[in-house]
From TrEMBL:
<feature type="transmembrane region" description="Helical">
    <location>
        <begin position="12"/>
        <end position="29"/>
    </location>
</feature>
<feature type="transmembrane region" description="Helical">
    <location>
        <begin position="383"/>
        <end position="399"/>
    </location>
</feature>
<feature type="transmembrane region" description="Helical">
    <location>
        <begin position="327"/>
        <end position="344"/>
    </location>
</feature>
<feature type="transmembrane region" description="Helical">
    <location>
        <begin position="108"/>
        <end position="126"/>
    </location>
</feature>
<keyword id="KW-0472">Membrane</keyword>
<keyword id="KW-1133">Transmembrane helix</keyword>
<feature type="transmembrane region" description="Helical">
    <location>
        <begin position="434"/>
        <end position="455"/>
    </location>
</feature>
<feature type="transmembrane region" description="Helical">
    <location>
        <begin position="411"/>
        <end position="428"/>
    </location>
</feature>
<dbReference type="InterPro" id="IPR052556">
    <property type="entry name" value="PolySynth_Transporter"/>
</dbReference>
<feature type="transmembrane region" description="Helical">
    <location>
        <begin position="356"/>
        <end position="377"/>
    </location>
</feature>
<feature type="transmembrane region" description="Helical">
    <location>
        <begin position="81"/>
        <end position="102"/>
    </location>
</feature>
<keyword id="KW-0812">Transmembrane</keyword>
<feature type="transmembrane region" description="Helical">
    <location>
        <begin position="165"/>
        <end position="189"/>
    </location>
</feature>
<feature type="transmembrane region" description="Helical">
    <location>
        <begin position="217"/>
        <end position="238"/>
    </location>
</feature>
<dbReference type="InterPro" id="IPR002797">
    <property type="entry name" value="Polysacc_synth"/>
</dbReference>
<feature type="transmembrane region" description="Helical">
    <location>
        <begin position="284"/>
        <end position="307"/>
    </location>
</feature>
<feature type="transmembrane region" description="Helical">
    <location>
        <begin position="250"/>
        <end position="272"/>
    </location>
</feature>
Length: 472
């Protein structure tokens, strides 16, 4: 079991490192080669498509993982999911065609349409990936998940070397990357699948599946809005330049969630099995939260100390100093995001979808109100503050409605580790130290402060390992 855990975590870590590395390459090439307005418009279109296809999923992606982990037939689940995908795809393109007819002069509609061709292929690949995740075949899932970014990243580097980066080139390469992802996913699924897929339309079963997913739909809508509403509002209410700057900082913020992305696919099956077997010992879950606070806070220190000198160096001064306040605020969202993910997984595994929906709906309302109020006043920093505020509200509400996990057991870690990180950053920035000595000083100071707060990494790792490898 220990060997399987190591293999699963290794596969997830390698997948996330590869994905984030090539995602960073993509973002870097585009940020250097496209103008800020052009970069902002492209990110705005991608943000809109992310929201649309997330909503169209109806939450069946997470429901699929839960059903497969609980032992249901992959063939039936994929067959029903594919009916949903084709129906939602027809709805999406019908609505897009109507909008195009009503607003034929809108210059971004062709861009949205072409990019959506790639995103729809990724949409088709989703059920196969989720079944693979539910089976805990994480090595196979890693192969499915990295193809798109690898193809896009390599192709963009080649295009940059040939001095041929234009918007139409980017669109074509994005479609090719998504096509490669779909083909690779189908190949790997059928190669490693025990049971073949038979597509049998079953309206009654599909209706029951949608009814089960209905509470999750509200969560999906709110989560989709939370993920990119700030991008859209910045582009509409402020400028494409502000959107370009904010999206660059936000992308780095997403990259530093790598440890969360590595462990998150492992948690849903384990939490489902934990609550199905009615285990009372939650020490492993508390250890996960404490370790995540340590890791998230360490990443806060590293990111903020590296930000301005490193980013200005690699982007020719375009995205470093102008984003120093933005990235500081966004990085302090990371601990809250880690905690929220664990609490959401706990609630999802206990089938408390209505409670989760209520929390996320309130969070979504806070985020929308915060963005509408703060973006006109503070622009991209306002968007970052709205993100931090909404995640804080979400975390508090999750703890209040969770029947198992208690805030008192982890409150010290949630409060102390981020405060240690902030203290380290502020104190070192007050010194005249140069770049490398300042980075080293901040790291050492954070470790010392965290040690004073009761750092117990060996014990925490042991508890986490036991939780993730418990016999099922």
């Amino acid at each position: 079991m220990q060997k399987k855990l190591f293999k699963n975590i290794s596969a997830n870590i390698l997948q996330q490192i590869a994905n984030q590395l090539f995602s960073l390459v993509i973002f870097y090439v585009l940020s250097r080669q496209l103008s800020k307005p052009g970069f902002g418009q492209l990110n705005g279109c991608l943000a809109l498509l992310l929201i649309c296809f997330s909503i169209l999923s109806f939450g069946l992606d997470q429901l699929t993982v839960k059903k497969i982990a609980a032992g249901e037939s992959p063939s039936t689940i994929v067959s029903l999911y594919m009916i949903h995908i084709l129906g939602m795809g027809a709805l999406f393109y019908s609505l897009l065609a109507m909008i195009w007819l009503l607003f034929p002069a809108q210059p971004l509609l062709p861009v949205i349409f072409l990019l959506s061709l790639g995103k729809f292929q990724s949409f088709i690949a989703t059920p196969y990936k989720q079944v693979t995740a539910g089976r805990e075949q994480f090595s196979t899932l890693a192969g499915m998940s990295i193809v798109s970014n690898v193809v896009k990243g390599i192709a963009l580097v080649i295009a940059q070397a040939l001095h041929s980066i234009q918007l139409h080139t980017v669109i074509v390469l994005f479609i090719l990357g998504d096509t490669a992802e779909l083909l690779c996913t189908l190949y790997l699924y059928h190669r490693h699948s025990i049971q073949s897929i038979r597509f049998v339309p079953d309206k009654k079963a599909y209706s029951l599946l949608l009814r089960e997913a209905l509470p999750q739909l509200g969560i999906v809508i709110c989560t989709a809005i939370l993920s990119r509403f700030d991008w859209l509002l910045l582009g509409i209410a402020v400028s494409d330049t502000q959107l370009a700057e904010y999206s660059f900082a936000y992308k780095v913020y997403e990259i530093i969630t790598l440890p969360l992305l590595a462990i998150a696919p492992l948690l849903i099956p384990r939490f489902v099995q934990h609550y199905q077997q009615q285990r009372k010992d939650l020490s492993g879950i508390y250890a996960i939260l404490r370790l995540e606070m340590l890791i998230a806070s360490f990443l806060i220190v590293i990111t903020n100390m590296l930000w301005t000198p490193l980013v200005d160096l690699v982007t020719a001064g375009k995205y470093g100093a102008v984003n120093s306040n933005t990235i500081l605020i966004l990085t302090f969202c990371t601990p809250l995001l880690y905690v929220s993910n664990v609490l959401w997984t706990s609630g999802f595994a206990q089938h408390r979808l209505q409670g989760l929906l209520a929390v996320i709906a309130i969070t979504c309302a806070v985020n929308i109100a915060g963005n509408c109020l703060l973006i006109p006043l503070l622009q991209k920093e306002g968007a970052a503050l709205a993100c931090l505020l909404s995640l804080l509200v979400q975390t508090v509400l999750y703890f209040r409605q969770d029947r198992q996990i208690r805030f008192a057991r982890v409150s010290y870690a949630i409060v102390c580790h981020p405060l240690c990180a902030l203290t380290s950053i502020i104190l070192v920035r007050l010194t005249p130290l140069a770049f490398i000595p300042a980075l080293a000083a901040a790291i050492i100071l954070y470790i010392l402060l965290a040690s004073l707060c009761g750092l117990r990494t060996k014990k925490e790792f042991s508890l986490v390992s036991h939780f993730l490898t418990a016999d099922t």
